[in-house]
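Recall the central idea of this unit: under ordinary conditions, the amino acid sequence of a chain determines the structure it adopts. In this exercise we apply that idea directly, starting from the sequence alone.
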Amino acid sequence: MAVMLYVDGYWCEAVVRSPEAEGEWLLGTHLARSPAEAMRWLRAQAERIARALDPVPGGGGPFPSAVLRASDEVGAHVGHVLREWLDDRPYQERQRRALEEGRHISANAGARDRVVGVRDAAQVYYSLSCRPITSRSLLT
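Accordingly, the structure predicted from this sequence is:
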């Protein structure tokens, strides 16, 4: 008898975690039918998070351009890291192929931030991930 693995879809998640604050917050999930659909969803979530946390003047974020100021710590911002991932299409293509091969993928960014209920700033990690959902079938 042989065992065959079948991919039933691709489970995508956008999650925020803070071990220091002892919290985890699910921002969204999606069941994709293909690796390409999974990558589109992950890109949309990266753009949504980047726009909300690190708005670009005139970029359609939640704040008027007049109130935004440049930061000295460009690399430390979650939005900056996610935008770098968004711009790296060759890397995303490698991630799409990894999904096709049955492997998990993720894009991650972290920074210190204020968390309600925590006295001091805590390390907060944003994670976009996807994994194949597999089932097994016995061949006789």
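The two ends are 5 Å apart (CA to CA).
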